[in-house]
Amino acid sequence: MLLDWLAAGLDPAKCVMFIQSHVPAHAELHLLLSMITPLGWLERVPTYKEQKENIKGKDLDTYGFLGYPVLQSADILIYKADCVPVGEDQVAHVELTREIARRFNGFYGGKREYIFPEPAALLTPAPRLPGTDGRKMSKSYGNAVMLTDPEPVVRQKLKTMVTDPARVRRTDPGNPDICPVGDLHKIFSGKETMAKVYEGCRSAGIGCIECKGWVADAVVKILEPMQERRKKYEDNPRLAWDILEAGSARARDIAGATMDEVRKAMGLDYGPNDSSKDEPAKDSTK
């Protein structure tokens, strides 16, 4: 995954990339946030319902799966993010993060205006990428074109992509605006190709295979330089590990400072100067 990020152009000098399990504060904040997150908030997350319906053969009846959005919230809030770049399907998770931050601030903010900012979702011009089966593109669904796929694999995958259901026969006209292949063209193809797609599809002047070939051309053109950049790190994995180690150290510092604030706000900042350490806890039930 890191190699994909670097190949796509993320700059370690600007982006802190790290291994989550090397920053234990994530797990600590997840635990604390899970104590104030109502169960109903998690059960109404759209992706929870969607994946329960679409992913078969895996046991999804666990807190780890239901509570995963709380861990995502911890990932976001521990760095006090103002905005989060996400796909359209993740907007609900960012909204949940906002609700959790609001609830935490209400419980523990005290005289301060807030402890956690409420982050906004940052969508790109292409907020949802269709997969080869017409659903959202997802590794879990097995309908994804991977950044490492060689050209023949990309073309084969896109050749099987579903199209406008109105085009039953080659002579039937179609509509690119309701076709998953048309959606990919809008993301990856230029104006000249788009004009040919609209004209050819609506008049049945082109077949779906030809149209898929054009979108494959555009996708391959984007992937090739990424795969070329990836080779640098594939040939020398130590470069990638150095980035992760440096990023993890920096992330621990930032996350640790946030957790100091969180523990203090929640009354969990036990220390040598905390008189409560020397006194037995009072039983509030008496």
Q: What form results from the Cα inertia axes?
A: globular
Q: What's the rounded overall pLDDT mean? A: 91
Q: What is the fold-level CATH name, i.e. the topology of the largest domain? A: Rossmann fold
Question: Low-confidence stretches at least 5 residues in length (pLDDT < 50)?
Answer: 274-286
Q: So, CATH architecture of the largest domain?
A: 3-Layer(aba) Sandwich
- Biggest sheet strand order reads 1-2
Total count of helical runs of at least 4 residues: 12
Query: What's the alpha carbon Rg, rounded to whole Å?
Result: 24 Å
SSE order, as H and E? HHHHHHEHEHHHHH
Structural class: mainly alpha
Q: Which bin fits the share of residues in helices?
A: 40-55%
Biggest sheet, open or closed, and with what strands and sense?
2 strands, parallel
What's the CATH C level of the largest domain?
Answer: Alpha Beta
Strand fraction band?
Answer: under 5%
Distance between the amino and carboxyl termini: 54 Å
CATH superfamily assignment of the largest domain?
A: HUPs
Q: What is the count of distinct domains?
A: 2
How many beta-strand runs? 2
